[in-house]
UniProtKB/TrEMBL annotation, chains A, B:
The lineage of its organism: Archaea, Methanobacteriati, Methanobacteriota, Stenosarchaea group, Halobacteria. Residues 158-282 form the GFO/IDH/MocA-like oxidoreductase domain. It comes from Halobellus rubicundus. Pfam families: GFO_IDH_MocA, GFO_IDH_MocA_C3. It comes from the Archaea. Its EC number is 1.1.1.424. This is D-xylose 1-dehydrogenase Gfo6.
Amino acid sequence: MEDALADYLDEFTRRDWQTLDPDDVDDPVRVAVVGLGWFAREWALPGIARSAFTEATVVTDVDADAVETVAVEHDVRGVTPDELRSGAVADEYDAVYVATPNATHLVYVRAAAEQGKAILCEKPLEATVDRARELVAACRDADVPLMVGYRMQTDPAVRRLRDLLEAGFAGDVVHVHATMSQTMLGELGSDHDQWRLDPDLSGGCALMDIGVYPLNTTRFVLGSDPVRVSGRTRTEHEAFAGVDEHATFRLEYPGGVDAMCTVSQNAQHASRLEVTGTDARLILDPAFYEREDRGFAVVREGTRVDVDFDQVHQIEEEFAYFGHQLLAEEPFYPDGDHALGDMRVLDALYESAEMGRAVALGDDA
Amino acid sequence: MEDALADYLDEFTRRDWQTLDPDDVDDPVRVAVVGLGWFAREWALPGIARSAFTEATVVTDVDADAVETVAVEHDVRGVTPDELRSGAVADEYDAVYVATPNATHLVYVRAAAEQGKAILCEKPLEATVDRARELVAACRDADVPLMVGYRMQTDPAVRRLRDLLEAGFAGDVVHVHATMSQTMLGELGSDHDQWRLDPDLSGGCALMDIGVYPLNTTRFVLGSDPVRVSGRTRTEHEAFAGVDEHATFRLEYPGGVDAMCTVSQNAQHASRLEVTGTDARLILDPAFYEREDRGFAVVREGTRVDVDFDQVHQIEEEFAYFGHQLLAEEPFYPDGDHALGDMRVLDALYESAEMGRAVALGDDA
């Protein structure tokens, strides 16, 4: 099996989307970073800096102290959110990365679109489907490119897994398991990020914040969209009052392939995606968190091969793709319409949890 | 963590149920083996022989050639099914092990009960809930002890996992994943076992034959029963026409704990049980097949410990427990009523799959 695998997995971390030589890039895409929570500071800003195709030039946040600290640390221009939205320093950036609480994505994306800037918006796209639709429409109306921050889609391990599935290496996919959990209050810590507990700002917690990973990653690797879903949510602890602390869900893909998913904001850390086919199992474990090395295993004919590969900086890959596609004038795969698909499913999962029955995803759902 | 774990996992393979000294057993329980399919020949007969508390003395099967071969090989008495049922050699055995196609359990169990013999019946108990109820009633009416062949319940790895959960080592259980698959037609091979494809004989395929493992094992380790279930079945290949080739199901346990399960008779071999709690994850992988070593891993505070332990012969453990409890005049845990719980759930899963909605398990369901 190892020989056949090698054919697929040689140059594991290759960027199959890259046509421009990073060494030839003199003017990387200048990015304004909107929202300086834990992820933006610890991961996005370093990722933007590492990527040859991007550089951060402007930062903003509702927390003026955070803006000042980050501006000094990264030697970038710090502005107020009002200044960002008004376009006061619009000549200092080509693109806007929006990493604010979900319910505030729309206001920043709309402002950036009106400024004619390219946009990378974090997922989930907004706090509700309707607002997400408005967001996508704003970008379309302004004719600006919109990418959505599905960092799994530019992760080499996920792309190689998808390659193997597409090549039929696993035979027909039979079913999928995915689990992702963390002790959110312990692992993230900072109060700055606790907007996830406010349903008005987040639109939900375990499903919106974590469920989107198993959901979007299975959509990506299977190359199709769920047709019917069933979800259950549960809240045990006072800290999570008003939002979902835990969730389980089944995504029914075309052909009867079910993805059985669990997510939790308050459980022992777990991060695993397992695709079982008639001929092989493909396992990512760890799978989903930016802060862990990815594991990639293939089981075929009873033999398990743990693939040893160079770990990448996941957010560098994401921003490299973002910057590259803009410079190459190529479209994004995870665009607004793709992200709306997740929003519809998340909405259907909350509906399913409330109604106690499965919910079909109509063409126009 | 390893110190705390050691307290629970020392003497990993201890038989916590054993009070009799195997060396003191002069007269082991004499077992008549009914049904000489692959499992009985490859696993049950060797297990009975290895166990100090049991010995095989009589075998029967509808296949006279198999009877003759096995009788010679194991130096036991071979009889016809009629002879077994009529009690013609009833003085040569104390107990009857029934490993025939599901829909024929009842006839053999009833005969054995009428002979006053102790019974170990394979799971699932019968092909339908009604017949399973009749089976349990026959044993109760005859006042004979009935154990059901849940070999996972006497497996040390499963018992230690349950011990850890009971001791609160994992905190509160949040959710469970379980998967079990094989290429049935390839891995088992023998035509002798293909009754599993006949719905009249089996009552179903993927769910009945394999689904019972994730179902019963989660019941056992969680120490509770599902209150509501949702299942989906699917058949792709002609060989499985009339039965379920693949199935996925969600078992809703009290307190909102969901077990997300997948099983297949036609997928790459998989065998995994994963319990995620607020404080730890407990993983059996491989978990379910008699023909593989079990793996046992504990993840707590982000640290994974793979427990190294002596592998047991799983069927020896099962028969040792069966013989021991009879000799010690102690009851069985996996008894007929316990097994009826599985039958009700399996029935509800098929109903759920047919109706396309979750099914509640009533007290009297």
